Amino acid sequence: MADNLFEGLPPPSANPFPLPSPSSEHEAPESVPADATESPPVSVPKPILKSALKRPKPSESDSEAATPKKSLKFKTTTDASETQVIEAMKKISSHIKTPAKFSKASKLAIQLIQSGSVKSGTRDYFFSILEAAISSPIPCTDPAVRADYNALFSAAQDAIEHLNKKQKNQLTAWTISAVVATDLYTDDSFVFSKAAGRIKEAISNLPVATEEDDVDEEVSLKHSTDKVDESDKIKLDTSLISRSEDNEEEEADPFGLDALIPGSTKKSEKKNGATVKMKKEEDEEDTKRFMKSQREALITCLEIAARRYKTPWCQTVIDILVKHAFDNVGRFTAQQRHAIEELWASIREQQTRRKQGKSVSGKLDVNAFEWLQQKYAGEKISIRHSVGASGDRRAQQWLG
Description:
This is Nucleolar/coiled-body phosphoprotein. It comes from Acacia crassicarpa. The chain has helices spanning about 60-65, 80-95, 100-115, 125-135, 145-155, 165-185, 190-205, 210-220, 230-250, 265-305, 315-325, 335-355, 370-375, 395-400, and strands at about 380, 395. By secondary structure, the chain is mainly alpha-helical. Among the domains are: about 80-185; about 210-255 and about 280-360, no CATH class; about 370-400, no CATH class. Helix 2 (about 80-95) runs parallel beside helix 4 (about 125-135). It has a two-stranded antiparallel ribbon with strand order 1-2. The longest helix is centred in the last third of the chain and has 43 residues, at about 265-305. Helices cover about 55% and strands about 0% of the residues.
């Protein structure tokens, strides 16, 4: 037993990955003895090859650093000068009268409204666009341009604050024809009910018609073929008279010395009084024209609504609308009152038919079951086969 048991064995190798002791956590690792043999190399697993198509997703910090943030900004103003805007409005008003160009011209007008180009300096040219659109040979309710009219005059409400009183009144009357009337053709019950509510509100806001309104209506009917408006003639005559009076006064006092004379103040007061009176008369004429056009537009809406009475879900709304117009018939002129009374009589007759179980067309109203019963009453049906001529049983037996 004197022999060494460890004879012939290799010397012990040093640990390649020594574990640090708790006390020597921050101390430098001990050096390996020189006579120690090297340990066999540790096999490192090869990295898994990833597909070239699969790329690591960049982190949020990397993406933010690579691409700077960009906020979406929509341009709502125009850099065009007022002169350029006026020229554009003139071109639009000249093209919007043409039916083939109406759709494109109306969209350009909407762009001008949205860009804020309608201001106090351009309102007259913008109003000429709306006036030309209304004077187009195609009516507002034509299916080809119905949506364009609705969009144009709906957008025009955003620029109404820049118009004067006369232009606002006229736009209100045009909106009834271009927006409310076109909404009555919708297939949406909510839109239809909303349009009917606007008509009822406009009727309630009308003043009671006077005998003068009836006389004006008769005169307009007699002279409907005349293309020249009598009110324009009166305005033209009054403007010429006022210009001649101004010229006479300038000739009588070319150096403006009458202002220094005490007696000349009476002439200036008289002139101011005539100007105020003339302005008052013009305002009254504008109000009459506004009420006239508004009444005509409301009558058109009532006629459109009445033509949709065959649609079942429209009937209740139309009943309420026409009844409201009949209750406020005194707010319309003589011819319009007669039309509303006839319309209400027609609606009442159709209501009676509905209560009796008859439809608007005069035929009896039937439900789905009764319709199927009538359809298959003459058909033959077999127990083993489908309905057809080969069957020997009739559908009445299983339909009751």
